Amino acid sequence: MTGTEVLTGRVADENGPWLADRLLELGVELAHITICADREADIDAQLRFLASNGVDLIVTSGGLGPTADDMTVATVAAFCGVELELDTELESTITDIVARWARKRGSDPDLESVRVATRKQAMVPVGATWISPTGTAPGVVVTAESGAPTVLVLPGPPRELQAMWPAAVETAGVQKAIAGRTEYRQETIRMFGLPESELADSLRIGEDTIAGFDALEITTCLRKGEVEMVTRFEPDGAATYDAILALLDERHGTQIFSTDGATVDEQVAALLSGRRIATAESCTAGMIAARLTDLAGSSAYVAGGVVAYENQAKIGLLDVDAALIETHGAVSEPVAEAMARGALARLGTDIAISTSGIAGPGGGSPDKPVGTVCFGIALADGSTRATTLRLPGDRSDVRERSTTVAMHLLRRALRELTD
Amino acid sequence: MTGTEVLTGRVADENGPWLADRLLELGVELAHITICADREADIDAQLRFLASNGVDLIVTSGGLGPTADDMTVATVAAFCGVELELDTELESTITDIVARWARKRGSDPDLESVRVATRKQAMVPVGATWISPTGTAPGVVVTAESGAPTVLVLPGPPRELQAMWPAAVETAGVQKAIAGRTEYRQETIRMFGLPESELADSLRIGEDTIAGFDALEITTCLRKGEVEMVTRFEPDGAATYDAILALLDERHGTQIFSTDGATVDEQVAALLSGRRIATAESCTAGMIAARLTDLAGSSAYVAGGVVAYENQAKIGLLDVDAALIETHGAVSEPVAEAMARGALARLGTDIAISTSGIAGPGGGSPDKPVGTVCFGIALADGSTRATTLRLPGDRSDVRERSTTVAMHLLRRALRELTD
């Protein structure tokens, strides 16, 4: 991967993780990810490093623009020991794309000047296969002599790279490079409310008691209060995986919420089918509503909600009794329940969820420190419930974590409704 | 950097960009970022690659845990040609930390068993300096013989790495490795509504007309509808930078909204001082409210808002006339204005902003395709205004872009109020 903007910390590298996922799906083992600036010597050094480590395929992203500071194709060609030549068919393709864009913006392009500007991008290593551009930069696949790795050159913008990937994989050069791959299965278990250390304990037990455990590659990771465990194995490891799943189910059954890849968001969406939901948010201030409407089709079940940041908004828009706030404080279970009840009544929904908490950095007290968040749920039968948690981290952590907790509380309440 | 979880695409590498930023601030040029799995051969190959490219300092992150699959320290020691030895002072430090955590969780730790479990993390390369752990993993600085790079080993969790960084930089080994650095200045210009290609045109003019242009390192990047241009230069490049800034101001003055590093969020927050704001969101469904409340202290000016996803919510919670929706459709400027007016009146604020749009993938029509978003602003003097845009991209792009546009519309309206 090249890109001064990635190296200087201003852009996170999206392509590395995305390509890692695609390669894993194909059963290709990824040995190294490297990032450098758009400098010939650095790109060349990385290509040499990767080649000397015996990889079969090098995928580069970035450095394909029309300007002089983009030099990936020329550097790869030199590395593979081939010249660049103008591909006139490709030149026409790029010229057409640029001209079409110009006309869309209402300007009348001078085709010859466009051609000159885009000529650099139509220079292709001799013998290479090019992949049609999504933007203006084509990809190329350079197959070197036997023993040397195949180099697949893709553009840096994630949207372009992702759109061109399927065609790139189908090229003869890439297919040949990945011919020796193993097919893997990959399964994901998601848990909520389980400390990572307890999962580690269970995995140590699994290691001691389940035959074939070591042949499975297990990665666990904590994200936003959930623990995600991904297991990758060859087809004959399926029975071992089932044994691990059974062990975890026995020890952490109540904390496992997904074994089929579904996220809590997808589960809540499915459970809301045929129902309508409203939100009443204080400390999360719209984050739950935004998350519920992330998924396409959410207008079928999201009615709307209220961001009740000031107490006056809780009173005026959610009919919370001012005396209740006076007595218990805005961050309290009675107020959270009243907020949920208010949203449910105002929007006439089947279920409503509320948050009221102290995200920090200010506003904490010995009694209710920063991180204290009250959640309320109201149902159409008139029942309500509330929970209070103390969530760790800074303002942004507390707000994100609260949103995830809300999704899990919704999941639990909706499952009870369905059972 | 090591970490199977990063390499398999499930976790984005946060440490690379963060360290890149810190090194830049120090004036240290970052040549390569590399990522590999927690495998001895791969870590060693990357260390050798970096050393052979003549770097002065290698920073590693990750692979310092207590379990056997974490092997960074041992691999670095072998690479530097030194043995590991138990540091008893460090062992006590880690044991104390683990025991304190256990007691916090209410369990009574067996100090001897804790000591055994943490012994691996107290093994330090002979002659190395260790950096006190924030979690349980200490950092180490290994200074090899002359000519070889200094290796700084830090833990993988971003929170731990970031907390330990200042102490790591102060160590004699790191100071010696970065002694030859140049101090750089870095300036950021942010623009909104400017195509990246027009900025590129202006920079080409700058290259032709401004002396010393090539000595400045300029990176431009598009993020969420804004263009950010970061310029890095040695102190004697300041006059050249000023000339570039003047050129851009002349050509794109109305699109430049920040030259001092401030984000639009910070500018809106400052402009809202002494005022109160309300939101009325349909397609963004809480994202504007969430963004306004991202900053600490926002409770001083955010009153609250309404997520009016269904038409009934627009009517019931924002007093939008049903006939208006019937006549113009929910995605229309009259409805957006009525929504903003409703939020302003209900919450008694000085300003209110609204969105109503088609985020997709469904719901588009020839007349109002996916990406059509109407924005409304209402002010306390009774005036309203509306804008309609067609935003590119998928559902998530349209919603994020709408949120950014809303911030810029707010900025403009608030500046007019202030002028």
From TrEMBL, chains A, B:
Pfam family, one: CinA
InterPro entries given in the database record: CinA, CinA-like_C, CinA_C, Competence-induced_CinA, MoaB/Mog-like_dom_sf, MoaB/Mog_dom
Gene3D superfamilies per the UniProt record, alphabetical: CinA-like (3.90.950.20), MoaB/Mog-like domain (3.40.980.10)
Organism domain of life: Bacteria
Residue ranges of every copy of the MoaB/Mog domain listed in the record: 2-176
Family that this chain belongs to: Belongs to the CinA family.
HAMAP family listed in its UniProt record: CinA_B
PANTHER family: NICOTINAMIDE-NUCLEOTIDE AMIDOHYDROLASE PNCC (PTHR13939), NMN AMIDOHYDROLASE-LIKE PROTEIN YFAY (PTHR13939:SF0)
Protein name (record): CinA-like protein
Native species: Williamsia phyllosphaerae
